[in-house]
Amino acid sequence: MKSIKPYGSWQSKLTSNLLAQKGKRFGQMHLDDGWLYWLESRASEQGRGVIVRSSNKSLCEEVLPDSVSVRTKVHEYGGGDFLVKQGSVYFSNADDNRVYVFENGELTALTPVETNVEDRYADFDLHEASQSLICVRERHQGETVLNQLVRIDLKLKRVEVLHEGFDFYSYPRISPLGHRLCWTCWNQPDMPWDSAELWLADIHDSGQIDAVHKVTGGDNVSVFQPEWSHGGVLHYISDASGWSNIYSHQGGMLNALAPTNNDFGVPQWVFGQGTYTITHDDKIYALYFVEGQQQLCLIEEDSGHVEPVALPFKHFEGRLLSDEDNLYFCASGPAIELAMYRLDLASGRYHALSEISPFVLPAGDVSIAQPISFPSANERTAYAFYYPPKSSEFEASENDLPPLIVMSHGGPTAATNCALDPGIQFWTNRGFAVVDVNYGGSTGFGKAYRDQLNGQWGVIDVEDCIAAANFLVAEKRANPDGLFIRGGSAGGYTTLCALTFFDVFTAGMSRYGVSDLEALANECHKFEGSYSDKLVGPLPDAIDIYKARSPIYHTEQLACPILILQGADDKVVPPNQAEKMVCALEEKKIPYAYLLFEGEGHGFRNAETVVKALNAELYFYRKILGVESDENIDAIEIKHLN
To answer: Can you tell me the distance from the alpha carbon of 232 to that of 176, in angstroms, rounded to the nearest whole number?
Structure first.
């Protein structure tokens, strides 16, 4: 028989310590000679980037020496950190940003060190004829940041610029015969999902390029993931139709392979992503979105027929890869943890290649995501995943309603998903309901839905989060007196706006969130340097809008408790954004808590930080709700809480 305890007070086996131990992020993937290689960022090792490999006959094994951490900081978000060819591992070293090769048990630096210049590298491909790596270089020299397409000569250990003139480059990819090179590029104020161009060039055995020309894209059309078939046909994803579909470029023609009202692409926040793969016999396996969930399919290129592949996975990360007989991917489902998998195409059977420890919670304690749609402001429809409280040991009194945590994802051009997330189960197993919102501007619902946020950041995202809470209250799936909102980065901005400009939520948590849009625009790194031009408006003309939507200028409207978490080394949203809000909360004597974590940047990587942040948030919510629990967690100081 279950124990009767108030919602929010339940105990759980899924502690913050266990969650931090499971704090492993999967990154870039590569196939080489029957081995799948991937990057793991491990919270238990202070965020060290570790390359791991596995074959069909082998357990996982680490590839590089323990002293090495693999990571690139290009665009600050990185991705495309390494490449494996014929057993040689080329990678960006986190400590000095140089490119190294690991072969025959030895590490060799391939890029030089220059005085007063910081060079960063990402998104590698190997041109065998010239024995060089083709990649993106981001050069920091004083206040100037220059992005270029470059060639690293492996023998001379010298870097040569192949193409420049655009603000950004990505996806340098060499054709199977080694004679052609493609890439994508774009200029500010566009982000890559707003407008990006596909370019093509001949590349000679010397590594030099010529016959450089644009293929397609630009002018509000975005191109994503150019990919060569084994027969040398260039493919790519374009949103020219309003939906990001797959195309081929052959004989001068641009051909839509499977025109559907579904998105195949994802926003290019990091390098090296890929949502389709072309097999050796020219079959195309791809991922598309349905109600915010990803579906694997087989595309028949001749007919354009899309055949779904039945799998329990609903969320995929990184990229799809294939060899003669298998697909490889990083995936998860509503009841399946994220892991690396191999799918046998002949039998349809799959198995995990990465190590998976049993999930901490038994099946009866796992809350399964429920896709919902609901009405929002101005007759719009918004989307979310709802998670009811779930425990095999506890239940609340019959007429009680659970407190609700509204989650606002980052980006804001991104999306949440329905994958089994220990970070959500942490709350639902303690008696909180959770709604994870794909507000207007999110990916996976078509270009028109994503573009809703242009000029409306701080409006539509907030409206949709409030609408989600009101919808669930009306459905009697949430307690109107226990509504919380939380988010990080852009989601933190949405949180602060909701708490400042509206009187809906009981309290909230902002994790490295934006409080001053103008300061963000002026201090932001290059990749997002003009992002706010699209989301809010160009400065200085739109300065009144920036101030109107910046919570820091309207703190007189604040009236509810806030927990603020911040990394001291955050370059994306600097600590002064948090500190301004803290000063305002202190001046008004509004209950708040502020935790600044030394050594942390944009996204907490250290296991100790993850533990402290989660426990602080749990303690904060329970204090605000006034519920007691038998769980022993460290208290935090909540100032001005009577």
So the answer is: 6
- Whether the pTM exceeds 0.85: the reply is yes
**pLDDT tens figures, 61-87:** 999 999 999 999 999 999 999 999 999
248 vs 301: CA distance, rounded Å: 9
Structure tokens given for 386: 């709802």
Report the C-alpha gap between 139 and 555 in whole angstroms.
39
Both tokens of 548, joined, read: 């109107």
What pLDDT shows up at residue 574?
A: 82
- Low-confidence stretches of the chain (pLDDT beneath 50): none
**Beta carbons of 482 and 402 less than 8 angstroms apart:** yes
Cβ proximity of 472 and 435 under 8 Å: yes
Q: What is the pLDDT of residue 431?
A: 97
* DSSP-derived secondary structure letter, 129: T
75/165 Cα distance (integer angstroms): 17
Helix (H, G, I), strand (E, B) or coil at 53: strand
Give the strand pairing for 106-109 and 293-299: unpaired
Rg (CA), the chain: 24
Chain CA centroid to CA 274, Å: 13
CA distance 254 to 234: 10
The helix/strand/coil state of 326 is: strand
Determine the 3-state secondary structure of 554 from DSSP: helix
Structure tokens at 438: 């794909």
**Is the Cα dihedral 13, 7, 504, 370 positive or negative?**
positive
Q: Which helix (H) or strand (E) holds 385?
A: strand 381-387
For residue 147 the two structure tokens come to: 């992005």
DSSP H or E stretch at residue 621: helix 607-625
Q: How far is CA 642 from CA 8, 329, 590, 592, 637, in A?
A: 20, 51, 10, 11, 12
Distance of CA 339 to the CA centre of its chain: 16
Domains plus CATH for the chain? 25-352 (2.130.10.120), 371-625 (3.40.50.1820)
Q: Is 640 helix (H, G, I), strand (E, B) or coil?
A: coil
Q: Give me the pLDDT at residue 286, please.
A: 97
DSSP annotation of 93 reads B
Nearest to 458 by CA among 417, 418, 514, 386: 514
C-alpha to C-alpha distance for 25 and 176, rounded to whole angstroms: 31
Q: Say how far apart CA 474 and CA 181 lie, in whole Å.
A: 56
> Quick check: 434 and 484 in contact, CB under 8 A?
no
Rounded to 10 deg, the angle between the 460-474 and 490-501 helix axes is 70
CA 508/CA 405 separation, integer angstroms: 9
Q: For 357, which DSSP code?
A: P
Contacts 24+ apart (CB under 8 A), 466-471: 466/498, 466/502, 466/504, 467/374, 467/375, 467/376, 467/377, 467/382, 468/374, 468/382, 468/384, 468/406, 468/435, 468/437, 469/404, 469/406, 469/435, 469/504, 469/505, 470/504, 471/372, 471/374, 471/375
